[in-house]
Design goal:
644 residues; alpha+beta; eight-stranded mixed beta sheet; seven-stranded mixed beta sheet; 24 helices; globular; binds adenosine monophosphate
Length: 644
């Protein structure tokens, strides 16, 4: 009993002690939400990515194996892995009502406070501090209770559900401290924004596995063999760093084929490093897509790959189709479950795929059945919708051009060379009009590649993708297994760049009407899990687009520079890094203004004459072009004439 009280006290105090009491305990303790809120508060104030990662690792240590998955999801403002599509999604008006109810203020008072502060989380915190009517039954909130109520908010719908949602949130606020209230409001509004991306999460998991890794003879031997440093103190430091990186890589390898951080955390918590062996590819769980490198000419591609497969590059949606018996699930490139949007592909997969279970990938686009012409992307994109799906499917039916096979009949095929996977893919697709193989040739001739490229472009396609015949499927990375060659125009970079909008400038003159003159955009730094500024984009947008962008961006305004954003330029309005836009430019130049690629005495990199091409709804911010890619393109530029 004494032990029980001691530990209860320990957690009520926020669980600041050593994790081992908790780890060894046979009793199933429940984490208080306070522990989570205090960690969030410290993470918000953390001055560096490293400090943030340590704080996260500490938090994860405090959760037991039954609850760690939930803690992991909540850290990213979610209730489940993104592929499950569960969003708390509460409107601001309802959150205001819940605050009013819980804090004993009128809705108008809450709204006024919101106008002043610009953040309902802070409003809830402040008003609860001044709470007029103390609730009689306030009790310490458990993480479990918070999770349960938020889940109910996320999943209840229909008549009367709004009142229920307000009640559920107010109930939580009633038992919450002011600081807890800050997060209880931000989560359902989708405003948590601690700036914790997947890489930081995995780093934190790795930190907690270090002591076990040090006992793993094989790992230790591998790391020691790779050490270059001679001085003993430095050697120890390097050893720790390399071991952590090694563990992180092992975790990422699994995340690539089983994209669910909560599930991973649970397995690691239960079984330590051995838990990784229990994680594998499974139909119904998304796999991170392999990515294409770029080279500017056919000659360089052949030099790099030798004999390779050259495929037409279609400009549509990349879809991963998972067939599990009669059940078909389709994931987008962002790993959202988009099954409902593409009924004809679901039907075709059931009919055409000759395997009990399979995971394959392809690009879907609208094709004019009468003329067999490909519709432009602007037409295909209309199929990404939640309403009128049946009608649009009739009007603009999609074809899925399949290009890779990852799994079939219970077997993971990712390790097989591409030529073998392609052979099996061809056999797997039965007759039908909807699922077909991509157009392709196999060649080692530059001329043949160019001829095929030109034919593809003439058909209205984007260009070609060359594929290494011997490469395994490399999930979640670019490693020259695929190399794209795109249409290019004189005076432009040979490929567009996908940037993330981090803010906007209001604009003067004509543009003032739209409230938006230019976008401040960034690229993604994978190592630092942050977004670094690269260009101010003010051209290429139609009036319609300006209006649309202004509307979209106004909803995700931030009062200050968001966590995870690195920019010396200050826009009129900061926004959450959420939207990816494709940008064309003349070249990449050094510039003191931007932060991408800045460091070691070098100025940053910037896009010269950037112009907007389109919004890339299929990409998550972390899937934007990376700093590393920009650096690669910048180097290439020096000896290859840009845009030639
Ligand atoms: P990018 O988005 O420009 O880096 O080009 C890579 C994308 O091209 C992939 O993610 C697919 O969505 C798309 N794609 C179109 N055709 C093919 C193909 N034949 N093989 C692989 N990817 C393709």
């Amino acid at each position: 009993m004494a032990v029980f009280l001691l530990i209860t006290f320990y957690f009520r105090e926020g669980g600041q002690g050593k994790g081992f009491i908790f780890e060894k305990s046979p009793i199933n303790y429940r984490m208080y939400f306070k522990v989570l809120a205090e960690s969030f508060d410290r993470i918000e104030k953390a001055s560096s990515r490293l400090a943030m990662t340590d704080l996260l690792a500490e938090l994860f240590k405090k959760a037991d194996s039954d609850e760690i998955a939930r803690v992991v999801y909540l850290c990213q403002g979610q209730l489940a892995p993104p592929y499950k599509g569960i969003e708390v999604g509460m409107g601001e008006r309802f959150a205001e009502e819940a605050i009013a109810k819980a804090a004993g203020y009128s809705k108008e008072e809450v709204r006024r406070a919101y106008k002043k502060k610009g953040d309902l989380g802070l409003v809830a915190e402040e008003l609860l501090k001044k709470k007029k009517q103390r609730s009689l039954f306030s009790s310490e909130l458990t993480m479990e209770k918070v999770f349960r109520n938020l889940m109910k908010i996320a999943t209840s719908g229909g008549k009367g559900s709004q009142q229920l949602k307000i009640k559920l949130l107010a109930e939580l606020l009633n038992s919450a401290s002011p600081m807890e209230a800050r997060y209880l409001i931000r989560i359902p509004l989708g405003n948590l924004r601690l700036g914790i991306g997947d890489p930081t999460m995995m780093d934190a998991f790795a930190i907690n596995l270090l002591s076990e890794a040090k006992r793993n003879k094989k790992l230790v031997k591998d790391v020691e063999a790779s050490l270059k440093e001679k001085k003993p103190e430095k050697r120890k430091e390097e050893f720790d760093r390399k071991l952590r990186l090694g563990v992180r890589e092992m975790i990422e390898d699994k995340y690539n084929v089983h994209s669910d951080l909560g599930y991973l955390a649970e397995k690691l918590r239960k079984h330590g490093l051995k838990g990784l062996n229990k994680i594998g590819i499974r139909p119904g769980i998304p796999i991170r897509p392999t990515l294409a490198e770029r080279l500017p000419t056919a000659k360089e591609i052949i030099k790099k790959l030798g004999r390779c497969e050259v495929e037409a590059k279609y400009d549509g949606f990349r879809l991963a189709v998972h067939k599990d018996g009669k059940k078909v699930t389709i994931f987008s490139r962002r790993q959202e479950n988009v099954t409902e949007m593409f009924p004809e592909i679901v039907e075709a997969a059931k009919k055409q795929i000759k395997a009990g279970d399979a995971i394959f990938e392809g690009e879907a686009l609208a094709v004019n059945e009468e003329t067999s012409e490909y519709y432009p992307f602007q037409v295909t994109i209309q199929r990404k919708r939640k309403y009128d799906i049946g009608k649009m499917a009739k009007e603009f039916p999609l074809k899925l051009f399949a290009f890779d096979l990852l799994y079939a009949n219970g077997k993971n095929l990712m390790q097989l060379p591409f030529r073998e996977r392609r052979k099996r893919l061809r056999k797997l697709i039965g007759r039908g009009k909807t699922i077909v193989l991509t157009d392709a040739i196999v060649t080692d001739s530059v001329d043949e590649m160019l001829l095929f490229f030109n034919e593809s472009v003439e058909k209205g396609l984007e260009g070609t993708i060359a594929k290494d015949l011997n490469a395994r499927y490399i999930a979640g990375a670019r490693k020259f297994a695929w190399i794209k060659l795109k249409r290019s125009y004189r005076g432009e970079l040979s490929d567009t760049i996908d940037t993330v909008v981090i803010g906007f400038f209001k604009g003067r003159g004509q543009r003032a009407r739209f409230g938006l003159g230019a976008l401040l955009t960034a690229v993604y730094d994978e190592r630092e899990d942050s977004f670094k500024s690269i260009a101010k984009v003010g051209t290429g947008m139609s009036e319609e687009m300006l209006k649309e962008l202004h509307k979209m961006l106004s909803k995700i305004r931030e009062a200050k520079k968001p966590a995870g954003v690195d920019s010396d330029l200050k826009p009129d309005v900061w926004v959450e890094p959420k939207y990816v836009i494709e940008v064309n430019a003349d070249e990449i130049t050094r510039s003191p203004v931007h932060t991408a690629g800045k460091g070691k005495g070098k100025a940053g990199l910037a896009l010269r004459f950037p112009r907007m091409v389109k919004i890339r709804q299929d990409k998550k911010p972390e899937q934007a072009t990376t700093v590393k890619e920009i650096e690669g393109m910048f180097k290439k530029q020096k000896h290859v004439r840009v845009g030639g």
